[in-house]
Amino acid sequence: MTKKKEEVKKVDLGLILGWIFGILFFFGTFNNLIGLNFKIALTFLIMGAAIFPPLLNLYKKKFNFKISSGLKIIIVIIGFFLVFFFAFTSSLNNYSDNSQNSDYYNEYLEYKENLEKYSENNSVETTNKVIEKGEIISEKSYQFTDIFGDYFLIIGEIKNTGTKNLDGGNFASAWGGKTRINTDFYNGNNQLVDSASKVFWKNYLSPNESIPFVICETDDFDIKTYKISVDEESTTDTYYEYFKISNEDIITNSENEVRITGKITNTGNIEKSAHLMVVLYDSNKNIIAVKTDYLGFETIKSGETKSFSVSIPNEKSCSSFDATTGQNQKVKSYQIYVQENLGVLAE
Fold this sequence. Notes:
Layout: H1 13-34, H2 38-51, H3 53-63, H4 69-100, H5 103-121, E1 134-146, E2 149-160, E3 166-167, E4 180-186, E5 192-198, E6 204-205, E7 210-218, E8 225-231, E9 243-252, E10 258-266, E11 274-281, E12 287-294, E13 305-312, E14 316-318, E15 323-325, E16 333-340
Antiparallel strand pairs: 1-2, 2-7, 3-6, 4-5, 4-8, 9-10, 10-13, 11-12, 11-16, 12-15, 14-15
C-alpha cells in the first residue's frame, strides 16, 4: 500500500504582504466609507481585492483567472497615487470651507471690501490731472459812472475744485506766485482794450471751498465783453483761522444802508486779529455787494469775544476786494466770512 504524499504549502514574503496590506486596505475602505470619502474608499477596496490572498484563491477556483505579480504592483502604485490625490483635494476643500468661516477670513473679506471702497472714492492721480484747480462758478457784470469816471465791475465766485489748498490774497511772507484771476476786456469790435490780474480775498481755499471775488476796472474804451481765466498756485501753509461768528443780525436804515452786526470769538489758543468779509445776495442768489473790514480792535485773545459791525452803503463803487452795486433794497440774504488778518493785502 503506497502512502499518499502530503502537500506542503509554501509561505513566502508576497503572501505575508498580501495579508497585511489587504487587511489594511479593507480597513481604509471601511474608515473612508464612515467619513463619506467614497472615492478613497473605492480605491482602497480595489487595492485590497487585487492582493488579498483569500480573494486571489477565489478568483482562481471560481473564475479561473490569476492576477500576475506585475499587475498587482501596478494596481497598488496607481491606487496609492489616487488615494493621495483624493486626500489632498478633499483637505484643500475642507481648508477653504473652514477658512471662510474663520474670523481671519471674515477680517480679510472686510479689509478687501474697505480697500475697494477706498479705491473707488480715492482714485489715483495721473500725471495729466491738475491737482490745483480754481473754477469760476458764477459771475455778473455791472457798469456805472461816478464823479471819478466810468467803471466796469465783475462780481463772482471762485471755487477750489482741485485737491490742494489754493493760495489766496493775504500774503504771509514773500510776494508773487499766488492764484490769479485773469480778465481780458474787449470793445464792441472784439478788440482787447484792457486786462486785469487779481487775487481772491481769502488766505487760501480748501478743496471744494468757494469765495466771492471782485474785479473792478476803469472803463476808458467802452468795454462790451470779457473773458476770465485762472492761474492756480497751491500752498502748504495752514493759516490760523479759529474764529466763530455768533449773534449776527442785519439792519437797514431809510437810505438802504445795510449794517451787519454780531460777535466774534477767538476759539484758538493764540491771540490774533481778524478780518471780515460780508456778502449780500438778492432773491436769485446774485451777489449785489461785497464789503471787507478790519475790526476796530487790534487783536482778540484766546477765548475772548468782541462785538463787530460792518456797514454797506447803498451806492455804486468798487475797489480791490469791495464792491457795491447800489441795490441794497434787494437784499434777501447775507454771508459772513472771517479769517486771520495777516497784515498785508495784495491786489
